[in-house]
Amino acid sequence: MTLLNKIPHPLTILMGVIVLAALATFLVPAGKFDTLTYNKPTFTLNTNGSDLTLPATQRTLDSLHISAPLAAFEQGTIRKPISVPGTYHRLPKNAQGIISVIEAPIKGLYDTIDIILFVLLIGGFIQVFNATGALEAGLKSLSATMKGREGLLIIILTFLLTFGGSSYGMAEEAFAFYPVLVPLFLAAGYDLLVPLAVIFGGTQLGTLSSFSSPFSTIIASNACGISWTDGLNGRLLMFVLSATIYIVYLFRYAQKVRLNPQASLVYRYDGAVQSPFPSFSEQVAGSKLSVRNKLLLVVFFLAFATMITGVVVWHWWLLEMSAVFLVAAVLIAVLQRMDQKVFIDTFIKGAEGLLSVAFIIGAARGVTAILDGGNISDTIVHEAAQLISGLPSGVFIVLLLMVYCLFTLFISSSSGMAVVTMPIIGGLAVAAHVPGREIVNSYLFGMGIMGLVTPTGLLLPSLALVGISMKAWWKFIWPLMLILFVLCAVFLVIGVQL
């Protein structure tokens, strides 16, 4: 039996996590907070399973002790149901049995269908583009241009992807970069862990220092009752510090692997893993690009530029981003004068290639389905809040960082974490004399650190895209996680004293 056969598949790992979550519903008491949902022009208060319509006014929010401003609901910053402080109540145990475990990944597929379609459309788009030969020609040209300076490319791309994560919450859309960067970094002499660390690690690190992300910082700040600009300078400083530490750490590993391929963690733990994406030969590297290839490359990069601009400027999300890649695929086929049957077959083949990633995404969300079905998510939040209440501010904020690290194992959605926990934790912060900005920071730091390894987030789909194991990634990332935890803890303790 080969080493690869001994390593559990990501779907196997996730099914194990789903089973553990189901077992937890037998042990953890069930309970729930009342929730408030904005349905223009009213609020809907759900209490004990019953809905009550309330006027959508600031007075309603104040009466429920919710610090979030009314404008946050009206402008769409807070879209999900928000927990109402002080309303936690026990519910009859609803343990999740075998049927629930079987249904969980299917429910996860339902809940993440927008993400899955986005991934499948990206697969089709990349396959169509690969069929033109323009990608290989472009990579050869870039490889020749960056010859001897590939390390600079690691620095630039990691910084840009971290900035994307920090500024507007880049996450799932980064899947589109793997087919491009994996062949490029492999041709430069690096291993498969390097593009994973650049793409997944870079965007995830952005969560830690999110200074303007609407999916984390802005939602959490509004739910906590503060302006998202409160603490902005500190988060910008954290962005610089954490990005610098991460880039230096990654660069040192990449250079070590390039000088000695035997030092690769992928080689050590996974063996000779083959790239899941087409590689390119070096024989004609540096050859001049044809006019058609240049035009195709322009369309290719315009698709990404349009996607990013749409998210940042026009507040697009997965529906619009998916449409961009579908249109780009059709446009590439037209420019290549591709037969319509060939185009469709090629597009479907590309989507098929990412089906395993789609199933992993759905299975990861299945963990949340189990926890919500057993009504223990709110219990975990409530008990953790009770545990840290009444402590000195310095102890409180470090324990809160640890609590958010723990929560991230169960709730990987940054917006979901914000609306579930911020109204509750924000109320405790007042009693502990902790500034609201540090509450938001502890949430960002905890999610940023633990998101690097949580199986319910984007890690397992990312590992599947490059074909390496969780063990190889863990061996690479755990020392950095310790460094980041110490940095964040010191940052928070200083912050509560200012």
What descriptors fit this protein?
498 residues; mainly alpha; 4-stranded antiparallel β-sheet; two-stranded antiparallel ribbon; 6 strands; 5% strand; globular; disordered N terminus
Task: Summarize it.
The protein is mainly α and 498 residues long. It has 23 helices and 6 strands. It has helices at residues 3-6, 10-27, 58-63, 70-74, 98-111, 113-132, 134-145, 150-168, 178-187, 193-208, 217-224, 232-259, 265-270, 291-313, 318-335, 340-353, 355-373, 377-388, 393-408, 414-431, 436-450, 459-466, 470-497, and strands spanning 31-32, 35-39, 42-47, 50-55, 82-83, 89-90.
Shape: globular
Q: What is the CA-based Rg, rounded?
A: 23 Å
Secondary-structure element string: HHEEEEHHEEHHHHHHHHHHHHHHHHHHH
Strand percentage: under 5%
How far is the N terminus from the C terminus? 58 Å
Count of DSSP E strands?
Answer: 6
Main beta-sheet strand count, sense and barrel state: 4 strands, antiparallel
Q: What share of residues is helical? A: 55-70%
